[in-house]
Amino acid sequence: MAALPENWDMKQTDEGEIVYLNKVTGETTTEHPCDEFYRNLYKEKKILKHNTQTEVKISSAIEEELQRRLKEHKEKLEKQYNEKCKEITVNIEKDKATLLNQLEEQKKEIKRKSDENLRKEKER
User: Fold this and answer.
1) Which 8-state DSSP code applies to residue 17?
2) How crowded is residue 20: how many other Cβ atoms within 10 Å of its Cβ?
3) I want to staple 35 with a disulfide (CB 3.0 to 4.6 A). Which of 3, 31, 50, 89 is the partner?
4) Predicted TM-score of the model (pTM)
5) What SS3 class is residue 21?
6) What is the pLDDT of residues 16-54, one digit of tens each?
7) 54 and 38 in contact (C-beta within 8 Å)?
8) What is the DSSP letter of 9?
9) Do 5 and 35 touch, CB atoms closer than 8 A?
10) What is Dmax (Cα atoms) for the chain?
11) Eight-state DSSP code of residue 47
């Protein structure tokens, strides 16, 4: 049993019931004078525990949402990267084909000039 606050006494009635008496105010009660204080303290602790658990749940939910968004953003960036790589590869292949065609044209032109020079040499 908790100690009595200052100015309180505990008495037992003839019927055996315990009664608490405040010597200053004359108030009497069958509840220990500290009961309300401890009930309120218990309620506060319970609320604090609930709030802490709620904060943990909210923190977890926020973390999950951030992870989901991060994954979504990463996937979007990877898709954009892959599309850009494909575009660059296509452009390289086009450039390669263009350069090969130009090279073939230059070879033909060199062959034509060489053949023409040979023909002129033979004519002389």
Assistant:
1) -
2) 19
3) 31
4) 0.47
5) strand
6) 999 999 999 999 999 999 998 889 999 999 999 999 999
7) no
8) E
9) no
10) 154
11) H
